[in-house]
Please model this.
Amino acid sequence: MKKVFFFVIVPIAFLVGVLVVFMTITKEKPPEGIKLALVDTVATNFPKDEKLARKELGNAEKSLAKLKPLKPYIVIDTHANRIYYRTEDSIFLDAVCSTGSGSELIDSVTKRKWVFNTPRGVFKIQNKIKDPWWRKPDWEFIETGEPIPKVEADRMDGNVMGDFAMGFGDGFFIHGTIYERLLGINVTHGCVRLGTDDLHKLVEMTPIGTSVYIF
Amino acid sequence: MMTSAGRLSGLLVGVLTFSLLVSCAEKKQPGTTATSADKQWDQQQAEIQYRVLQAELKLAQANKPYLVLDLKRNRLEIKLQGTTVWNYAMTLENTDESELQKFSERFVGSELKVVRPILFKYLFAATSKTSDSILAIVSEATTFPVELLQRTIPERFQLKWSDDIVLDIRTDVIGKPESKWKNTMVDIRQTIAGHLGDALVSVKMPKDNAITLYRAAIIGLPTLIYPAS
Model:
């Protein structure tokens, strides 16, 4: 009996103890501040009656369907630097692009601050411009250490935005670039740069008013 | 001579026999499908479906991306305002249908929970997308810090939700391990936990898809499940 206790029960108990300790110390603690239930999904008002329940389901499906665009839309993936022209199940254009770097610039004189992010969210194509000119903003001069010009014409540059630009609001554009080797890297000040061929295809496909989803 | 009551009962028997024969003939027809109205009503399934729809409506209103685990179609999706902005048809690795079912059931649980935030993201090994020498040149030309320009290509990473629900993502990339010791501990723990009933689904993914998912799946990202049926 003693032999069984010492050679069977004690080792098993020891192993179980080690296992419990191991599992306890290696268990990760959830980060603080994360709400465990972001969305209250307890649908207490779901009807018990089949007919009413079917009607409720149908209404909810319709509400969700209304959110989806009926026409193809542009998606800009800032994580992988890719741009798509797509529907829910089909992709018509998949191209490499460049999006915002996320870096900051502070003007040491005026303390003005810029963060060079491509904005996230849902936008619409507002215009299409052929042979666009870039009106250099103040940050371009601050970044390069040049004085901010007093004459408007000194801000204009017709050689950097490629053949087309499509505006999607707040001064942000999808446009071409003379630095095609940098496509795929987050090097822009917020605009979305595309290679010449892909830009031509996208401009041709995209009507004004097309939704632009940026994430 | 038959009475009118007799004639009526004979007619009724005839009609009943005819309708019985017709219904039997209909049942025997191959390929006959039931309409949605004929489908057997499952109150709990319907309630889960309703919760999924309600939850998605709320998530779509938030104007922020959310992750969708569509286990009906074996698809991973990132959505924004209810619209798919990224999707990947899951290629399961060392995971069978029963494990997928277990994952789905664990996620929904007895409380019929259809949304959970990502609580942990663990990177086992990774490599850099752009070589440091190229980035150094780019950084000099653009004045942007190098670290902002670099992208991580994961070899393997995991997303975890509460109740030890784990999605393990692997790519073909050969990366540098973040910590060999910690990687071993995580693997041992999950092997033991797997035998104790934890839910883990392993997915193989091309590197371009993995870059997006790895970066977009931030801690706290709401995850909606379309449960496996």
